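Pair request: fold both.
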Amino acid sequence: MQRTVLAFANTLRKNGIRISVDEVLSALAGIGWIDLASREQFKTVLKTTWIKCAEDIDEFNRLFDLFFADFSVPDEALSDALPPETLEGPLQEVLDQANGLISPEFRQLVLEGIAALAATLPEVADRVGLGEIRYPLQASHYAQRMRRELGMDRWPAEAEHLLSLLEQAGASEEERAALESGITERTDLFGEIIRDFVGRQAQALIRRDDARDLPRDIMEKGFGALTPWEIQAMREAIREMVQKIRDESALRQKRRQRGRFDVKHTLRRSLAYGGVPLEVSFRKRKKSKTRIVTLCDVSSSVWNASRFMLHLLYSLQDQFDKVRSFVFVDQLGEVTECFEQQDVNEAIETALEKADIPYNRYTDYGSVFKEFFEDYMDAVNRKTTFIVIGDGRNNFFMPGHEYLSRIRSRARRTIWLNPENRGFWKFGDSMMHRYAKECDEVRECRNLKQLIEFINDLTL
């Protein structure tokens, strides 16, 4: 059971559900207090120990049903035929005296039935490396490897040898024929169970891999052209990337925690011992995090792209000292509180309801920059990275770039993320040629690949 639980934990990890070693140990301790015959009790212990986020519950349920699939086999129909009651004693005696010519797996098939043998499949799968499956077409290959691991290719010869021994022990032809028929039926059924087991495991192990390892054409596909499936796949990829960034940041912080080697302080402290021993001293690093202020265009023309950018930025709030967030069309609405108190997906929906701005108007960057300068400049100081998310199309209103210039003079950095192809920035009502002059950095950010590159530069 321990190996099975560990294998299931690894399956969940491969599908993006984070499980620590301590949580695995807690689950193993917990199942020692329940009735393992109760599927619901077993499932409840694993779920309550491992699942920490509501959005992972459906995925856990799906994977649990795939991994711990019920092995429904007609053992009752076979019980009368394998073995016949008159053969129970002789069969047991013959198997005991087989001198290693009958494998343990074949013996278990004959004496205990399919259900008992099927219970060993998770362990067999671990031995053949089923967890490394990457493509659906590999399922038949791994099913064949499991058959070989169980020695099923030798079962026909073992059955023939067993029947020969029974004949020598005085079993009748009818009894041997009934036993042979039962063995053949069980062997065929068990082969089907292996194929079904591998197929279910493949579904559990491959499905999320496809979402995480997004094809290059999807990574470089514009946000506005994504299908619903691709949007969901990208959300999963973003969630995993966020966790990776957090892990790398924590590791980097741990390595730097001691600070730099302080030569002067080390020599000064060692004087108390005449220079021996040498007590090494480090210069402590000051904790410094960037403050973030974002202005995000939520008009219909860029909302799909803005949603992805907000999702990623606010999933990384803990990487910054302070995050203040605003959405706009032709007026500003602050939504910082929503992101501080709610999950990202829920916060985005709530933010749109509580921002109290008109969404049915034309985008006016000039009036937005003026409003921010007059009402919210207290949010900007020399530690602030000021980020604008939008296409810069101002519908031929006054550009207001002078206000953006004043904001830039107060901020540490000013960055503009534009979800539109750079080749269109100088045409129509685009004011990007003016806004770009008032920014420290302007990036085309119209697909997930470009967004990931920006977040890596911002946080790492």
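--- second member of the pair ---
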Amino acid sequence: MRITDLRVFRMAAPTGGSTNWMFVRIETDEGIHGIGEASLQYKDDALEAELLDFRKFLIGKDPFRIDHIWTSLYRRVTWTGGAVTISAISAIDLALWDIKGKALGVPVYELVGGESHDRIRIYANGWFGGADAPESYAEKAAAAVADGYTAIKLYPFSGTQGARQDRLSRGTAVVKAVRDAVGPDIEIAIDIRGRMNMWSARRVAQRLEPYDLAWLEEPVMFDNVDAIAQLAREVNVPVATGEQLYTRWEFRALLEQNAVGIIQPDICHAGGMSELRKIAAMAETYYVMVVPHNSNGPISTVASLHLDMSIPNSYLQEVFVNWLPVYGEALTNPLVIEDGHCRPPDGPGWGTDIDEAALAKYPPVAYTPVESEPYLQF
């Protein structure tokens, strides 16, 4: 079997703004194709150019030589790494695993070790749409729990810069209202999105300590591992990070600090199935759990579930539950979430494909530059 083509296609993501989901389809001379995802917010054109450049290398290659292809793409350019290059490699890697699974007639998770779990527990993101006060957050959180989710995440400190002290009080009030609404047994994660400095992050952690958080996500930026580790040791709230780290080499520095208990690599950005399994194995030696980041499209979600099924230290899987209807349209074999748990779709490879005809309802949108938010200081 040989690779004959690589094609890129996009659809508008249901996120608002100028975000698209990007997919890769790799064809072979035996009529078997594989699907990967390369969604990288606001960098569509650069990413597509990188994928089409890699296409020149891939034509004629044996798609079963997945590790060889990964290493060749990673090492063949002078400027190794970076979000665009690694996301392109990730998408190609995912498509190659799909091809191999289809060719051998087995799900991807069987190829990479088989089931470590019977099913994967989902943590719900995106359930809070329209909430603008503690009371409305509480109401929507209770509804998510009623739908069967036992873990939820929210962003109580997001918004415009404005009155900082009021924002700290308001965010804390939101978390308290959510905890009161869902009770003591539901896991609550808070995402800061790297928007705080150390001083502010400490204050927030102190305010939120009574609410028994599952984790405080990216309280400070990802690019200073020493600072993240210092903060994680200082506060009494678990700290999670990793969605903006790429490859085993960047995660090595974080793990060697032995300060965080949860890492969040993204299967579309950190190196695909091949690389995330290696990152997960490294994490296991430090007794660190893996909770894959997933703010991407449907193939990212499906591939993450295959990863989760195959590694012993997966804990939860992020899903934007408000996007599930669009996932259902885009996938030929949709996801089924029952009692807050999910398995990959049944079938070889990913067990599903992208319905390209259905994507016509969501034509890609042009990028509109956005202004970066400064650090939040409380």
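Observation on the second member. Residues 123 and 340 are 8 Å apart (CA to CA).
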